[in-house]
Design brief:
The chain is of the alpha+beta class and 153 residues long. Helices cover 16% and strands 42% of the residues. The two termini are 29 Å apart.
């Protein structure tokens, strides 16, 4: 017998696909799309060599904390990226953020620009590092992993 697929759309623009097979139950996360506006950041990502789009996204409408490979769209163009959602524990006293490092992109994006992003895969949890150097090494690994994942799409 054939599998059946259902999609559920929530107010937060999250789509969850569930496939049911008669031989077993297979549940997979489908497309998780979110929207935010570009806001000014503190420039820390740029200073570390990984400029980011800092986004204003309501807490109840954002993915859970973590590092993700994402598809990104703004100004009528599509990109791929690596995203951080949550606190920045390596830097004491900083607030939680949603920020995306757009892969192979080095242009300014105007404040207020509407940015849509789609979670492709969670790479890891948010971690505290003992030094900025350790953080930069991990970001390099995250970006490489995101590139590998996104190149397969």
């Amino acid at each position: 017998m054939k599998a059946r697929e259902w999609s559920i759309q929530t107010a937060a623009s999250v789509v969850i696909s569930i496939e049911l097979e008669f031989i077993g139950l297979h549940v997979s996360m489908g497309t998780m799309k979110f929207t935010g506006k570009k806001v000014p950041g503190d420039g820390r990502g740029k200073g570390l060599g990984f400029p980011t789009l800092n986004l204003s996204v309501e807490e109840k409408e954002r993915p859970e904390e973590g590092i993700y490979a994402v598809k990104v769209s703004f100004d009528g163009r599509d990109f791929k990226g690596a995203m951080h959602v949550g606190p920045r524990p390596t830097f004491e006293g900083t607030s939680a953020t949603v920020e995306i490092h757009v892969l192979d992109f080095n242009e300014e994006v105007a404040e207020g620009t509407l940015v849509e992003f789609e979670v492709v895969k969670k790479l890891r949890e948010v971690l505290k590092f003992d030094s900025v150097e350790e953080l930069v090494k991990q970001i390099q690994l995250d970006v490489e992993q995101a590139k590998d994942i996104m190149s397969a799409l």
